[in-house]
Design brief:
The chain is of the alpha/beta class. The chain contains 12 helices and 8 strands. It has one domain: Metal-dependent hydrolases (TIM Barrel), CATH 3.20.20. The protein has an 8-stranded parallel beta sheet with strand order 1-2-3-4-5-6-7-8, with helices on both faces. Helix 4 packs parallel to helix 5 and helix 5 packs parallel to helix 6. It is globular.
Length: about 375
């Protein structure tokens, strides 16, 4: 649901805001104005490389991004690229909604999409240095994800080691559209480093792996791509669980960002049913997959599903677990959620405290 606008809405919003906890927004998007923003953090070798050769990404798009929300008309009014102006972010989000902390997620982390893995590692290091200097150090309300070159897991683990413990970072960020399913062993060094430093892994729908978001080919329309994001996130959850990631890393925590959560109960029911009949194939799964999912996964609200009967949303969250839901606006996307309007159901005081603030505070160790 898009935020309300105008003076007539300000007084009711202020009244509603006083009735809820301060927001910890787990879905805020920032952006580079251009790649030249990274030049101060790149060696001459890589600056020259980008000038001469550019990127080699495994993506077929030339004139547009596969992500519908990257279109010019799909964001809040203001700076272009959207999310690239800190002052505007403060005005439109942090101050307006009394945000205690905003967790930054770079929607297009170029470093993980590079075929040239040395370049990918250099870009991730530069992005992390840039976000500290220009974002988290300039507003203490902002926290970020350590961007890692996940297709080069050893380099990714090194980047986690480099930044773990820094007050500006509270999780590890990876794309979800990867060369192989994220549960595969090639990515395990990333999870090992994240677990070792007690950092959740935030998985926001993004990435250009050269494959369509669907299982059968490229969709024709943005509306298809928008919907298929949730389905692709389901595949990520299934891969992480069935490949045994959590059997090896029992303390690992994963946050699914930007794909809703109402699909989770049906996924668990179906996966449990398959596991009950084929559990000998996956002996590392000693308990039903739904138990593993409930133990290791959190979900952001944006874009929260909006059923015709609001109480259906309550039934879904009751099943998922109120302690597993993290509020997110999705700023600056066109469908960003106003914290006063995102839930069409009446929340108890305990539910409000958890969703808007307490769940994220506990997960990320925020003070």
């Amino acid at each position: 649901m898009s935020p309300d606008n105008g003076p007539a809405a300000s007084a009711p919003r202020e009244k509603r805001a006083r009735a809820r906890p301060r927001v910890i927004d787990c879905g805020v998007h920032h952006a580079l104005r251009s790649l030249k923003d990274l030049h101060p953090y790149l060696s001459k070798r890589w600056r020259d490389h980008l000038d001469a050769y550019g990127f080699r990404q495994p993506a077929p798009f030339l004139g547009a991004s596969p992500c519908p929300k990257a279109a010019a008309g799909s964001t809040q009014a203001g700076a272009w690229p959207p999310g690239s102006d800190l002052a505007l972010l403060r005005t439109q989000l942090l101050d307006r909604y009394d945000v205690e902390y905003g967790l930054l997620h770079l929607p297009f982390p170029q470093g993980m999409d590079q075929r040239n893995q040395e370049l990918g590692a250099a870009l991730c290091r530069a992005l992390n240095e840039w976000v500290v200097e220009h974002w988290t150090s300039r507003d203490k309300r902002l926290k970020a994800a350590i961007m890692v070159p996940g297709e080069d897991p050893e380099a990714a683990a090194e980047e986690i080691e480099r930044w773990a413990g820094h007050p500006g970072f509270v999780q590890v960020g990876m794309v979800t559209h990867t060369i192989e399913p994220l549960g595969r062993r090639r990515y395990w060094p990333v999870y090992d480093a994240a677990s070792r430093h007690n950092l959740p892994v935030g998985l926001h729908s993004s990435g250009s792996n050269g494959h369509a978001v669907t299982a059968t080919g490229w969709p024709s329309y943005d509306v298809e791509e928008q919907h298929e994001v949730a389905i692709s996130q389901q595949a990520v959850v299934v891969s992480l669980v069935t490949e045994g990631v959590f059997a090896l890393h029992p303390s690992l925590r994963v946050v699914m960002i930007g794909a809703g959560f109402a699909w989770m109960p049906s996924l668990c029911w179906r996966l449990d049913h398959a596991w009950a009949r084929m559990r000998d194939e996956v002996p590392h799964l000693t308990n039903p997959p739904s138990e593993t999912i409930r133990q290791h996964f959190w979900f952001t609200t944006q874009p929260a599903e909006e059923p015709e009967r609001p109480e259906d949303l309550r039934r879904v969250i009751d099943w998922v677990g109120w302690d597993r839901i993290l509020f997110a606006t999705g700023y600056p996307h066109w469908d960003m959620d106003d914290p006063e309007q995102v839930f069409p159901i009446r929340l108890s005081e305990e539910e409000r405290r958890g969703v808007y603030n307490g769940n994220a505070r506990a997960l990320y160790g925020l003070r």
